[in-house]
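hi! just following up on the protien thing from before. the input was this:
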Amino acid sequence: MRTSSADKFVAEVHAFGKLLRIVRKNRASITSHRFYSPKARAGLAALRKNFLMFKRDYPEERFPKVAFQIATIEPLVSKLTEIFPSDAKEMIRLLDEIGFKVNADLAAELDAPEATPLLSTSAPFIPDELIDDKHGILKKVLWEANRCYDAACYNSCAAMIRRLVENLIIEAFEHHGIADKIKRDGEYIEFGALIGKAIAEQALRLTKNTKRTLPELKFFGDLGAHNRMALVRKGDLDRLHNPIRAGVEELARNI
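and the predicted 3d structure came back as:
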């Protein structure tokens, strides 16, 4: 599926190539011409900007086939920038090569079903409205967890969800006036013990599914934040998506 960044990049390649052909036809210089020089510089800047946005939308871990094709185009874009503005003929050749790759191999991968990215207009991994706006820090942590998932930063996402749930448990105990149950020597106990207290606390009214999920969520949160030998994968989070979403809402209703 083509994103807007892909379409914009293709459009900028076409527009920049058209401009360079006009420059050559008129035997003008893009180095010093009063009209064409700034226009060409702006065109190249727009092309590079949209290429970087295009690349950002298709991270390698999530879209390996599309990312591979983008990687074959990147040296051409770099070369185009390197020789600007000295060689209009060579720049046109590079743009033609970029255009061919975009319309052939890259287009085939973009049209594949697995190349559909999660865009900012799609539903977030965990709904934003689960946390009330008055809880600004928790809202920001939730936002960061969703952004990490969108960007295929699954270890960071797991770590941020861990932080969100840990804070929600503390806020819930404080809201019910029972914060002393989760303190030792005046300090809040560590996350694993917090989960045990939350599971056992009747005032929170957590469902059986959430009670089963919380220890697993801790495992992946710790894995993403601390483990040097393993990684959190997309499938790990996707498998836990529904119980995480339910658990966050159950805890959030207690604050």
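The first strand starts at residue 183 and ends at 184.
Strands lie at 183-184, 187-188.
cheers
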